[in-house]
Give the backbone structure.
Amino acid sequence: MKPFAYHQPDQIADAAKLLTSIEDSKLVAGGMTLIPTLKQRLASPVALVDLTRLGDLSGITDGGDTVTIGAMTPHALVAASKLLQTKIPGLAALASMIGDPAVRSRGTIGGSVANNDPAADYPAGVLGLGATIITSTREIAADKFFLGLFETALEPSEIITAIRFPVPTKAGYAKFKAPASRYALVGVFVAKFADGVRVAVTGAGSGVFRVAPMEAALSGNFDASAIAAIKIDADGLTSDIHAEADYRAHLVTVMAKRAVGAALS
Amino acid sequence: MANVIGIGASPKRKEDQRFLTGRGNYVSDIKRPGLAAGVFVRSPHGHAVLRGVDKVAALAAPGVIAVLTGDDVADDGLGSLPCGWGISDAKGVPMKEPPFPMLAQDKVRFVGDMVAFVIAETPEQANAAAELLTVDYEVLPSVVGVLEAIRPGAPQLFKDVPNNICCDWELGDKSAVETAFRKAAHVAKLSLVNNRLIGNPMEPRAAIAEYEPGTDRFTLWTTSQFPHVVRFLMGALVLNIPQHKLRVVAPDVGGGFGVKQFHYGEEAVITWAAKRVMRPIKWVASRSEGYVSDRHGRDHVTEAELALDETGKFLAFRVNTLANMGGYLSTFGPNIPTNLYGPLLGGVYTTPAIYCNVKVVFTNTVPVDAYRGAGRPEATFVLERIVDVAASEMGIDRVEIRRRNMIPREAYPYQTPVLVQYDSGDPMGCLDGALVAADVRNFGIRKAASASKGKFRGLGYSTYVEACGLAPSRFAGRLGARGGLYESATVRVHPTGQVTVMIGTHNHGQGHETTFAQIVSEKLGVSFENVDIVFGDTDRVQFGMGTYGSRSLVVGGAALSRATDKVVAKGKKIAAHLLEAAEVDIQFEAGRFSVAGTDRTKTFEEIAGAAYVPHDYPLEVLEPGLEEQAYYDPVNFTYPGGCHIAEVEVDPETGTVTLVNYTAVDDVGTVINPMIVEGQLHGGIVQGVGQALFENAVYDESSGQLLSGSLMDYCMPRADHMPMMTVATHSTLCTHTPMGVKGCGEVGTIGSPAAVINAVVDALSHLGVTHVDMPATPNRIWRLLQNASLPVAAE
C-alpha cells in the first residue's frame, strides 16, 4: 500500500468538497474492493475520503410503495431487514448472497452500486427493480445510471446518499456463483410490477443489462415456462477461464427461470 | 502413576494449544535487531532476454540499502540451485540439467522468475524502490503447454535442450507389453490431462537471514519442510558456507503440502544478501507472489492403453506421458513424474506387463515439483480411469473387473513388473468394506430420487495403492537420488525422567508433537505431557531429511521407536546393577524395571536419576547419562492403499457437479492416533476433490501470463463443497516398519480424484460420455452435454 492522506468528514458537503479540491482523491465506503486494490498497489490515490462518519446514510426506511436504503447500509443489514423481507424479499435474498459474512458486514449498497463491478449483485437488483439512485446533487433512474464496465453516470464529486426501490408485486434473484470468487458468473433479477416485468442480468457481460424479450414474455405470463425457450445472444458476453460466452448466455436463461421460481415461492 | 497416552489413543493435539490461542511462532512473527526488509523483483514476462537492469533510481530511493541482481550473483561466483535427483533415459544418458541461477542471468523463463532483490529499511520503501527499477527485456515468444513445447519450431528455453525435452525416461518391458497387446481380446484407450495445481498453504513462504560477524555464522529462518536439507543444498552447493557455520530454522510453519519441501532461490539470495549488507533481512511473500513462485504440481498429458483378455483380465498396460517441468528443474522436479509415477502403474492389480514412457519437458511456467501425493495421484488417475473405460467397453461391472484383477491378500509380498514389491495389503478387504460403508446396494434408489428432480447421479470407485515412507536410500540411489532418505531421532531422558525428543522430520500441521509423544509415552511408560518434541532447527536437531512423502511416522517414527528401544536397553543395564540381578532377568513394563518373578522394581524416574547421579553405577562398563539416538533407513517403501467411493449429482441445466457422498476405507497400517489419521484423510480427500472439481492453474498460451493467479480465479475447495465423509481404516500391518505403520499423509489425495471423476462419468454415461477431464467445472460439463452423442433427457 502506498501512503495517502485520510479524511473522515461528517457532512456530505464536506466530503464532496474534499473530492473536488483534492485531485486524485477517492471515496471509501466499506472498502471491500478499494482496500484490496490499494494493498496490491494497483491504485494509489492521493487521499481517501471515508464516508463512515456520515451516520445518517445508513438505514432502511419504509415509504409505503417504496423502500429507501441509505448508501452506507451494509449488506448484512439489508439481508436481515424484516421490512425488506416483507416488501421486497428478492432484494434481501440478493444481499444475503453477496461475498461472505465479513464482506456483508463491511460492504455497502452505495459502494457496490457506485463501483458497478460487472459481476456484482446489487446492480442487478437496482436495475431489475427500476430503482432511483439519490445522490448529493440529484436523482438518477437506474436505467440511466449504469454505463458499462465500472462506469456510472456519477460526476466526479457526486456522492450516492441513498437508493429508493419501488415495491414490486413479486421479485426474485438467482445467482450462479463463480466457484472461486463467488461473484455472479451470471445473476438474474426479475421483478413484477402492475405495469410489467423487468429482468436485469449481471455477471454475463461488461455491465448489468436488461433482457427485453424475457420482460415481454413474463409480462404476459409470469411463469418460468414463458422464458424457457428464450435464448440470449452470446455475442458481446464475457468469455474467460471460468465460463465461455455461450455458456454464460445459456445460464442467463436458466437463472432467469430460477429467479421467477424464487419470486413465486 | 504416569499418565500414559499411547498407541491407538486420540488425545487432543498438544500443538493446538499454542495455535488456537495465537501463540504460534511463525517466520514472520520473528523480530531481529536492525531488521531490514527485502522484496523480489520478478519477471512480468514468460520468456525474455534479460538485457540489463538499471539500479540507479532504485538505489536513490528513500531507505534503500542495496539492490542485487544476477550480475552480482555471477560476480560472487555462486552456484546454481541444485536438483536433488538425476534421472537418465533408457540408454543411460543423463537428463539435461541447465543451470538455475538464484537470480536470473541472461534470460527469464517464467512469469515470476526472480530478477532482483531490493533491500530497504521498511517493506514499503523496498516496494516503492522495486517499482523504480528499470529492467530491459527483449520479450520472446512463450510456450506453456507440453504438447506445444515439443513441437518443431517451438520457442526453445535453453540452447542445449533440443525440443525442450529434459529427459526421455522409460520404465518396464516394452517388448513384453507389445507381445501382450498383440494377443489381447480388447484394448481400452484413454487420452487425458492431469491438471496443473497450486498448493496454497495457508501461510505464504517467508524467510529471515542474519549474519553474525563475531562467529562468522549465518542463520536462516525459513518456511521449510526440511531445514537440514536446505542447510546442505544451500550451504554446500550454492553459497559455499560450511555446514557448521550455517543454522537453518524452520519454526512453526502454516502448511506445506510439498510447496515448502524445496530449496528456493529466495532462501539463498536472502542469506547471501544478509552478509553483503551486514543486516538481518526479512522477506514475506504475498499470496499473489506465491502463485507465481511457489512450485506448482501435476500438469501431465497422457495417452494410455490397457490390453485385456476376453474375461477382462489385464494383460498389459502402456502409458505415454508428457510431464511439465516448468522453466527450470526444482529440487525434486524430474523425480516426481518418473520414479514416483511409473512404479505405481501396477496399482492393486496383477497386470503382468507394464511399460511407461515419460518425456519430461521444459516450458515457460513456474517450475513444477512435488505436491501432496506427487506422481502417485497422477498414476492412480490414469489407471483407475482406464479400468472404468475398459469395464464399460467390455460390458463388465466396474467392481467385478477390479475383483478379477486384484492381488489377493495371500499373494503378498507381491512383486510388480515396475520395480516395487508390495509387502502387505488387502485391496479386496478395503473394497468390500467400502461397498458396505457407501451403501452401494441402495444406490439405485438414490439415483432414481435424483432423476425425479432432473439430476443425474453417479458412483465412482478408486481402488488404489501408493508408495509411501520415502525412502529406502539404496533403492532411491539407484533411481537417481543424490541424497539419503533415512531419518534420525534422539531421545533425551532428563535426570527427573521427562523426555525431550529431537527429530529430523518437520511438523507443519501433521500433529507430530502429539503422535510422537504418544509413541514415547507408550514405549517408555512416561506421562504424555512429560514428552516434548523438538524439530525444525539444525542447531538443536542432529540431522534429518524432513517431512514429505508420508514419511514422518514411517521413517521418523521408526527412528524414534528404535531410539526408545535403546533407552530401555540401557535402562535395563542400570536396573540390573541397582537391583543386583542379571541383565537378562530385567523386565521393563509400564514404566517399571523389575526382576522377573520378584517384587523388586525401579521406576523409570529412578533409573534416569541414577544415570545422571552415578554414585551407585557401573561406570567401568556403562557411560552415565540416558540419551539415545537412532538413524533409520527403511528397507522398502510402505504401500498404503484402499478403496474410495464417490457419489455425485450433476445438474444438467447448469453442469454443476455436487459431491453428495464420499466413502474411504484405507489401509494405513498401524494407527497411532485415530483422530489425527481421520483428519489427514479428510484433508487429503478434500485436496483430491479440489483437483477433480475445482482447481486449475491456467496460463495464457502466447504471453505466458498466469491467468489463475489469485484466490479470485483459482478455486480452492471449501467446506460447503464437501459432504460429511465416511472414513474408516481396514489395516494390514506393514511387515518391515518397526510399528507396522504405513503412513497416511497422502492417501486421501491419491485415491480421490479418480473416484470423483469416475462418478461424474458414471452419472453421464447414459449420454455416451466416456471421459471428463479435470477439473469437472460446470462449463466443461455443460459443453460435454451439448456435444453428447445421446440426447440429454427432456427437462
